[in-house]
């Protein structure tokens, strides 16, 4: 079951259907967000009753949300799903370049064209969009979002709940603190502080605002 009815949920259904061993059996959202009983020809089930219609021992969940609320929406859905006994699957595109030692947590999506080098480590609930590069010995903490063509260089550690924007570059051997928003095209050359927006080349720190916490990118 895929959580959500937005564009990224549709995309997730497509890639799972065409590029994974999983069978998509339907979609689920909270009752207040239901707009009909079908989506992409599959049933839409209220999340409030999902464990009764689709028991956790029979189906897994995937929550493919973007970075809304600094990935907090995705993290909340995972926590709520686990409280009902559900496990969350992960997806790695067959068109991504990975190595046998790749280990990722639950509810991760690694899209086509990504390069993930040996000894890289990816936490749970992470989205890595098409064409991004995670270099050797780099780490992504839990609840991160890496946009297309972003580069996380060797031995760089990214803390939890970060957003790494389109075409941004994190140089090697630096530490990205938790809850940082790295803007599109930014070049980060040194360690960051928590709860900051970093933009420019070289990147400079700006205060994280409510807009970054509430913006919807799907």
User: How many angstroms separate the termini?
Assistant: 18 Å
Helix and strand succession? EHEEEHHEEEEEEEEEEEEEEEEEH
Mean pLDDT: 95
- Main sheet characteristics: 8 strands, mixed
Radius of gyration: 17 Å
Give me a quick take on this structure.
The chain is an alpha/beta fold.
Description of the structure:
This protein has 218 residues and is of the alpha/beta class. Helix content is 16%, strand content 23%. The protein has 4 helices and 21 strands. The strands form 4 sheets. An 8-stranded mixed β-sheet has the order 5-6-9-12-15-18-20-21, with no helix packed on it. Strands 7-10-13-16-19 form a 5-stranded parallel β-sheet, with no helix packed on it. β3 and β4 form a beta hairpin. The longest helix has 13 residues. The chain is globular.
Task: Give me the secondary-structure topology.
Elements: E1 2-3, H1 7-19, E2 27-29, E3 38-39, E4 42-46, H2 50-53, H3 72-83, E5 91-92, E6 109-110, E7 115-116, E8 121-122, E9 127-128, E10 133-134, E11 139-140, E12 145-146, E13 151-152, E14 157-158, E15 163-164, E16 169-170, E17 175-176, E18 181-182, E19 187-188, E20 196-199, E21 204-207, H4 210-214
Comma- or semicolon-separated keywords:
218 residues, 21 strands
């Amino acid at each position: 079951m895929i959580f959500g009815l937005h564009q990224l949920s549709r995309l997730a259904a497509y890639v799972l259907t065409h590029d994974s061993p999983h069978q998509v059996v339907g979609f689920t959202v909270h009752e207040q967000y239901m707009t009909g009983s079908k989506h992409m020809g599959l049933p839409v089930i209220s999340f409030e009753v999902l464990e009764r219609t689709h028991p956790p021992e029979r189906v897994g969940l995937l929550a493919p949300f973007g970075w809304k609320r600094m990935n907090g929406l995705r993290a909340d859905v995972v926590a709520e799903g686990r409280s009902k006994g559900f496990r969350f699957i992960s997806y790695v595109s067959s068109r991504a370049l990975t190595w046998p030692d790749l280990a990722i947590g639950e509810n991760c999506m690694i899209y086509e064209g990504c390069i993930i080098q040996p000894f890289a480590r990816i936490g749970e609930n992470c989205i890595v969009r098409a064409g991004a590069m995670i270099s050797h010995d780099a780490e992504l903490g839990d609840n991160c979002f890496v946009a297309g063509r972003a580069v996380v260089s060797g031995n760089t550690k990214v803390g939890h709940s970060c957003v790494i924007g389109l075409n941004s570059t994190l140089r090697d051997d630096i530490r990205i603190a938790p809850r940082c928003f790295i803007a599109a095209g930014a070049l980060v050359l040194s360690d960051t502080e928590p709860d900051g927006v970093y933009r420019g080349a070289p990147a400079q720190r700006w205060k994280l605002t409510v807009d970054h916490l509430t913006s919807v990118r799907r």
